[in-house]
Amino acid sequence: MFKENELVILIDPKNRTYLLKLKKGGRFSFHGGTIFHDEILKKKEGEIIQSSKGIELLIFRPTIAEYILKLKRKTTIIYPKDIAQIIFLGDIFSGAKVFEAGTGSGALTLALLQAVGKRGVVVSYEKRKEFLELAKSHIENYLKANKQKDFGKLVLKNKDIEKGVEEKNFDRVILDLPEPWKVLDQVEKILKPGGFFLSWLPTVLQVFKLVEEAKKRKFYLKGIYEFLERKWKKEGKSLRPEDRMVAHTGFLLIFRKIL
Amino acid sequence: MFKENELVILIDPKNRTYLLKLKKGGRFSFHGGTIFHDEILKKKEGEIIQSSKGIELLIFRPTIAEYILKLKRKTTIIYPKDIAQIIFLGDIFSGAKVFEAGTGSGALTLALLQAVGKRGVVVSYEKRKEFLELAKSHIENYLKANKQKDFGKLVLKNKDIEKGVEEKNFDRVILDLPEPWKVLDQVEKILKPGGFFLSWLPTVLQVFKLVEEAKKRKFYLKGIYEFLERKWKKEGKSLRPEDRMVAHTGFLLIFRKIL
Amino acid sequence: MFKENELVILIDPKNRTYLLKLKKGGRFSFHGGTIFHDEILKKKEGEIIQSSKGIELLIFRPTIAEYILKLKRKTTIIYPKDIAQIIFLGDIFSGAKVFEAGTGSGALTLALLQAVGKRGVVVSYEKRKEFLELAKSHIENYLKANKQKDFGKLVLKNKDIEKGVEEKNFDRVILDLPEPWKVLDQVEKILKPGGFFLSWLPTVLQVFKLVEEAKKRKFYLKGIYEFLERKWKKEGKSLRPEDRMVAHTGFLLIFRKIL
Amino acid sequence: MFKENELVILIDPKNRTYLLKLKKGGRFSFHGGTIFHDEILKKKEGEIIQSSKGIELLIFRPTIAEYILKLKRKTTIIYPKDIAQIIFLGDIFSGAKVFEAGTGSGALTLALLQAVGKRGVVVSYEKRKEFLELAKSHIENYLKANKQKDFGKLVLKNKDIEKGVEEKNFDRVILDLPEPWKVLDQVEKILKPGGFFLSWLPTVLQVFKLVEEAKKRKFYLKGIYEFLERKWKKEGKSLRPEDRMVAHTGFLLIFRKIL
């Protein structure tokens, strides 16, 4: 059964999803009527709840991929399809020490915390205080609601990476910054040899510039990638891709530090 | 410094990669000459080694994504770009209990073991004994070489899932089988409510069949996906995608168990 | 200068486009104000016109690709990116005799008429009378407005291809029908040996069925294709793909008739 | 029946294709044995011919798309999937006057000649004499072999567009040049108002540069495009995309001249 402060995702018959944080006495109203949190609190994951208008909704605990798409955002987030690749191609292993800048809305930070597991550490810099506060609450809400999962230790810092860093000997550095070439000194300082440096960039001139600057230094360029996800749908005898898709989010650059 | 039995990946100036398991007295010969393992054993990650013909190669520890592409394969493996999505969209969290069938070459199994971390468990069925043995040695080689990383508990079983299962209350089930619709009873038995069932299928008629069969049962279809990865290259002023790419590997189907 | 009954496309500063058929005394009102046709009639192609609210719009003659996207549609049309491939991969040459079914909104028909040129012929079957009427008026509007271009001879027939055909010795047959396997007899009758048979199908089970049926007959399968178009945008220093794209329209199958 | 100097494409059971120019007494040898041209000259399109080793091959007349992939090339050609879009999105209509530079191997030139039809004209500049000669023979071979098709009038000039042009009042200009921004004066001179200017560019910095330079002049940027083609294959019950595809050829930029 669900507990207070748990997060649930409700799915209606048209596959629309709604994220709720459960509160005793709480209520959720939508075009399909009203749902009382107290009713959900008596249910189990995978059960169905009926709205006041008789709409049936499935109740699940949200994954991080589902959760982050529902966050209040002050910036563009990195999409789940791209976070997946950052974690696997970037080898964010269980037990790793990971440095991130900037924190943004905390979407990637949360995914990193899950990937590094119990013994891992994620240090994240964000220079804009209001972003850091929002990210913190996003992350804490998910952590509190998911006691069955292990997460690494989180260190959020209200700092500007351009002004210097105190971290060193880290396994991975991930930058979601518009001008990463300005902080290559810091990246070299933070990373251990062989460590991964990942940069997420939306436009091609940024990619060009970063590769030019990084090759003057102790970095091996492992690859420049873009990722596309295409969803399919099946209705009766019709199986086909969906009509529209995301055409672009950004480019992932992966470097390794050399000695 | 590297130790005996560690795995290293060597990268030549044309970005070709070579995987070695370090042995005292070992030697590696390729078109660029010979390299002596004892020389590598004196180096650190991120250093350069010279072959007998003067070719310079970078030395790194391989990620799982790099390692599995070098494995001896008896079957097609699931590609890194797809493993990444299985782990993140399938919410293979730190601490999870994951069931897999079949083990195949062990590529996905190894990635799951890293994702579930210290407290997690991966049970994997494989009916062909010689595949299981090979997968086991692939996995053990990587685990022994990566003591700094945490991995879950591995249980390999030389069993055919079609003949029944003893597992239950698992968080996730992942099938890389040609006829997954034949084992939906078993999947329902293994999974806890709300748990994820992922199926990896290369052709569209398989996708059609599985969706048809699963909807007769207690499964919610979260989505059918295909993923594309496009690499880019930069040479001087030229920045452009590579000429060729992988056009297709398979389709990922994600279901959640309902009550 | 433009003449009455010519078609023009107006492009506003945000790249929105508006299609007009010029009439003396006509007026066009949109969120940006009003534009009088008489003003446009005094302009030349490539000139700018100001709306009553001071919005500046470029005036051009529309291409077929632009025109068909503005048509009143009773069915989905085949997209420009796909029409382009039908014409070139399907070798719709200047002087060809082309058979089409069904006419639909006439979008493909019009493109075929342009491709076959002065000496070519396009015969198009459509069983639904109201579709045929609409297609006819779409095509005639474009032909009348584009006297500087050559078009083939058009023969529209209000007939159901399933009930038989009288055509034979044609160079190409193009079917935009949901069950093309039902009319393979007719296709064989219409086509000369070596001729192309193209079928446009939105879903994969249709593709499977047609290939299965066609291989029992005198058809060589040249290929099954899908086509993707990705647009890019440049704003200041930012050059990147647009955020969203069309993920799927349909599959093109190309066969050649063998003896 | 085929005639001397006709082009044929032979297709073997594994879908490999061979282009021949028929000569009395000619012979073609390949891994599957020998085929005598005189035997083909007795056949009709769509018939089967047996090699000396008993391999059966289909005989067809090649389309331009098939023909150009078989040409001796001194440069990269523009691919059929891209030529298709140049012709349709670029509105290369029947009767059009088209200017091209440079001619290259003549692949695009030939496709343009077919698109403009009987009354159309294609003027093509190529500064390298040996390229021009090769292109000329490529084009003439196809024209002679395809009397049943209409082609426009071809004017090949051994000239460097950077040194000035005498053409004006053309409907379309298509540049396959590495630095098109150097000849924008010439493009403006050649094109009539409303006319299309298309540029084909392989790398992103070229795209950036051309858009920057063109917007300082009398050009409206209609769009920047890239096109992907994915082939599918069916074997028994298996229907799926092919394993690999072309990931990149180039970017198409389309402008229209404004007054």
How does this model look, in words?
Four copies of one chain form a homotetramer. By secondary structure, chain A is an alpha/beta fold. The first copy, chain A, folds into two domains: 7-62, Vcp-like ATPase, Chain A, domain 2; 65-257, Vaccinia Virus protein VP39 (Rossmann fold), CATH 3.40.50.150. Chain A has helices spanning 37-41, 64-68, 80-89, 107-116, 129-145, 184-190, 204-214; strands spanning 7-11, 17-21, 27-30, 33-36, 48-50, 56-60, 97-101, 121-125, 153-157, 170-175, 191-201, 219-235, 238-241, 244-246, 251-257. The longest helix of chain A is centred in the middle third of the chain and has 17 residues, at 129-145. The termini of chain A are far apart. The model of chain A has no long low-confidence stretch (mean pLDDT 97). At the A-B interface, helix 3, helix 4, helix 7, strand 12 and strand 15 of A face helix 3, helix 4, strand 11, helix 7 and strand 12 of B. Strand 12 (219-235) of chain C pairs antiparallel with strand 12 (219-235) of chain D.
Structural class assignment of chain A: alpha/beta
Strand order of the largest sheet of chain A: 9-8-7-10-11-15-12-13
Global outline of chain A: globular
CATH class of the largest domain in chain A: Alpha Beta
Order of helices and strands of chain A: EEEEHEEHHEHEHEEHEHEEEE
Mean pLDDT value of chain A = 97
Q: Given the structure, what is the number of helices of chain A?
A: 7
Gyration radius from CA atoms of chain A, angstroms = 21 Å
Low-confidence stretches of chain A: none
* Level-2 CATH architecture of the largest domain in chain A: 3-Layer(aba) Sandwich
> CATH topology of the largest domain in chain A, what is it called?
Rossmann fold
Largest interface: A-B, 64 and 66 residues
Largest sheet of chain A: 8 strands, mixed
The CATH superfamily label of the largest domain in chain A reads Vaccinia Virus protein VP39
- Whole-number tally of structural domains of chain A: 2
Q: For the terminal residues of chain A, how far apart are their CA atoms?
A: 53 Å
